[in-house]
């Protein structure tokens, strides 16, 4: 990611499924939303909607490259990068919008997509990975194998294979591709700041790469279910649904501490999450480019 959205459910957007009460389930058309954060913009997708807009993508924030001008139609997963976003349509094809991307409609049928600063990658139906965009450090040259999740960062890409092994490729100037050995991962998040973090099968978070702002020192006294790596900081959601952040003290690390969340996505200086209580989108951090002005429909 110079930022990308995260994935933990083996190829779908990071989302801790909310358990609805019996009374809540009497409404058959409850809203269900998933989110993605790019460098200076964010997007959300209605997975289910009582407003009859299921599959609709809504983006806000910086739109200088057209990254907030989402196409019409129904999508099932989205990811946001620097000046572009990509989404998977119901028919499992990918469409990207914005600037700085070589392919707007990459061939193939996909389970998951991740957008980095200037490149993107998709997890195909056969569990292989295909990448496109800028490739100064071979970040768009994935290894062969069977994978369950992929995450694009700034000049590098990380993935988890079907054995739980983490692999990264591309720029390794800060050790961001030196994935710890003998660790099984549920999910990895590659950042726009030359580091990456992953959630292990023991629900710990391990980070590696650039540690200039202590962003690789994840708390060891918490159990996490997902993690999102920003530019110089990272945040995770604990088993109790609370957000814990570390690294550079910035807008990102000002996440609400007394609110429970089911999902989180970090940009460069802002973050967004899905509240556990009502499924609404809440953002925090830097207010420039209208990044915190979440559309009222969300």
Automatic annotation (TrEMBL):
UniProtKB keywords: Disulfide bond, Glycoprotein, Membrane, Receptor, Signal, Transmembrane, Transmembrane helix
Metal-binding is among the record's keywords: no
Range of residues in the leader sequence: 1-21
UniProt GO molecular function: protein serine/threonine kinase activity
Tree of life domain: Eukaryota
UniProt enzyme class: transferase
Membrane topology reported for the UniProt record: Single-pass type I membrane protein
UniProt GO cellular component terms: membrane
EC number(s) given by UniProt: 2.7.11.1
Pfam family of the protein (one): RCC1_2
Subcellular location: Membrane
Catalytic activity: L-threonyl-[protein] + ATP = O-phospho-L-threonyl-[protein] + ADP + H(+); L-seryl-[protein] + ATP = O-phospho-L-seryl-[protein] + ADP + H(+)
Protein name: non-specific serine/threonine protein kinase
Organism: Albugo laibachii Nc14
Upper classification of the organism: Eukaryota, Sar, Stramenopiles, Oomycota, Peronosporomycetes
Gene it is expressed from: AlNc14C150G7507
